[in-house]
Amino acid sequence: MDIRIISAVISAGVALLIAVLNHFVITPIKEKKASKREKLKKLYAPLYSLVIARINISKAQSVIQKKIMLGTAKPSFVAK
Q: Which domain of life is it from (predicted)?
C-alpha cells in the first residue's frame, strides 16, 4: 500500500476515535458536572442572597453610625 493511503486511513481512524470519545465519554461527564452545579446553585442561591443583603444592611448602618460593625452580639451572650 501507498504511504499516503495508510496515513489517510490512520488520520480518519484517529478522527473517528476522537469524535466517538467526545460524544460518548466527555460530553456526558460535562453534562453531569453542569447538572450538579445547577443543583448547588438552586440550593444555595437563597442563602447567598440573604448573606449579601445582610452585608449591605451592615455597610449602610456602619456608614450612618460612622463605626465598623463586624457582627452583632446580644449583651446576654457577651462574656464578662
A: Bacteria
CB 40 within 8 A of CB 51: no
Q: pTM (2 decimals)? A: 0.54
What is d(CA 1, CA 13) in angstroms, rounded to the nearest whole number?
A: 17
DSSP 71: -
Which of the given ranges, 12-26, 46-60, 63-77, has the highest pLDDT on average?
A: 12-26
Q: Is the dihedral of CA 47, 49, 53, 56 positive or negative?
A: positive
Give the helix ranges, DSSP H, for the chain.
3-21, 27-65
